[in-house]
Amino acid sequence: MTLHQDEVPIDEAMVRSLLRAQRPQWADLPLSPAGAGTDNRMYRLGDDLLVRLPRTAGTSRSVRKEQQWLPRLAPLLSWPVPEPVHAGTPTTAFPLVWSVHRWIDGADVTPETVQDWAALGADLAEFVRQLHTVDLMGATRADDLSWYRGGSLRACDEWVGRCLDDCRAIVGSQLDVEKLDRLWRAALALPEPSGPQVWLHGDLKPTNLLARDGRLHAVIDFGGLSVGLPDAEHATVWDLPPQARQAYWNSLSLDDVTWARARAWAIAVGVSGVSYYWRTYPEFVAECRARLQAICTDAAAR
Question: Rounded to a whole number, what is the largest CA-CA distance in the chain?
């Protein structure tokens, strides 16, 4: 499934050729698809490894970022995170950097794998608390560690407005886009946050979390790793059931202003996902629509 106009084709034969050229000792291990996101394709390699390949030149910058910073962050966190074991270099056939990570056992976070959503929400809050208190180690909000999430909501208003218009045209009869617009505008009117910049994972949605025995076991996909203001980090809790969302809020003692900004970031990501991936990635569009509906439902209940 191709999602981007500038996407580099990736298949099993391509992965095998990369391994033969750069890691021949792994080239004959069993290889099978292990999922694909908007930015990367993954293949499980043997029992213990995961090959991670960016879809585009733009997302390949995230690969270098993970290779540089994950080994430094991992010892400071209580939950496993990906461990790069090979920094793949470009070839004629695949002109981008790529990675091999240690495989992390765990199940996707779903209603089938999590029974106590409040505990999951509290676990996720503690992960966020730890990450946000890790020393920046000289990192600044610049170059690959600067992302729109973690910056100013107001700087995003123009493109979010266009995406809201797209949602009106695409799913307006099935989603209260006017309410989402009002919540977005209300957040824009709030004072800009003034707290310190911190490490941000950037995309703590359920597909980037792994569960074991019903609890949070690991956090994966640090392609959105950046330095910035923390409000956007909380946006993905609208992808979780209300019990997890409330436990997360309580555990971090978030105030109403922070919550409103986080909700606005959730709206921005949701409407842009519907707008950009409407014709190419229906599963992701469904994920974004569910997030936006949860925001509407949650706002009506408060």
Answer: 58
The pLDDT of residue 38 is 86
* pLDDT at 302 (0 to 100): 64
**Predicted structure pTM score:** 0.94
Alpha-carbon distance values, 106 to 21, 214, 284 (Å):
30, 10, 21
- When pLDDT is cut at 50, 70 and 90, the band that residue 94 belongs to is very high
Amino acid at 118: A
Percent with pLDDT over 70 in the chain: 99
What residues have CB less than 8 Å from 62, skipping those under 6 apart? 39, 40, 54, 144, 222, 223, 224, 225
Does residue 134 or residue 7 have the better pLDDT? 134
Token pair of 22, please?
Answer: 């750069």
Q: Which CATH superfamily is domain 112-301 in?
A: Aminoglycoside phosphotransferase (APH), C-terminal lobe (3.90.1200.10)
Burial of 21 from C-beta contacts in 10 A (0-12 / 13-18 / 19+): middle
User: Residue 132 and residue 125: Cα distance in Å, rounded?
Assistant: 10
d(Cα 153, Cα 192) in Å, to the nearest integer?
8
Q: Is residue 83 helix, strand or coil?
A: coil
According to CATH, the topology of domain 12-102 is Phosphorylase Kinase; domain 1 (3.30.200)
